[in-house]
Amino acid sequence: MQPRYDTFIIYDTLSGRDLAEHLKKTLARIKINAFVASKDIPLGVDEKKLRYSILNEVENIILIITEGVFTSKEVKNEISACIKYGKKDNIKPFKNDAVLDKKTLSFLTKVKTGIKQWVGFSTQEDLSRKALGWYSNQYQAKVQKPGMPIYLIKPRTTDSSAFKLYFIGLKNMRRYEWDKAITHFKAALNKEKGKINKVGLNGLIGNCYFIQGKLKYALQYYKKSLDIAREIADKQGIAQNLGNIGLIYQIMCDNDTALKYFFDAKKIHTKIRNYRGEAIQLGNIGYTYYLKGDLDRALILLNKAIVIFTKYKDILNMAKSYGNIGLVYDAKRSTDLALKYHNDALKLNMQMGNKEDAAKDLGNIGLIYEKKGDFETALKFHKEALKLNIEIGNKKDEAIDLNNIGVIYLHKSDFKRALNYFNNSLKLEKQIGHLDGVAGALCNIGLISVIQGDLNNTLKVFISAKNIFEKTGNMEGLAKILGNIGRIYIDKRKKSNALYNLNRALSLWEKLGAVHEIEITKRRIYIAQGL
Question: How many domains does the chain have?
Answer without folding.
Answer: 3
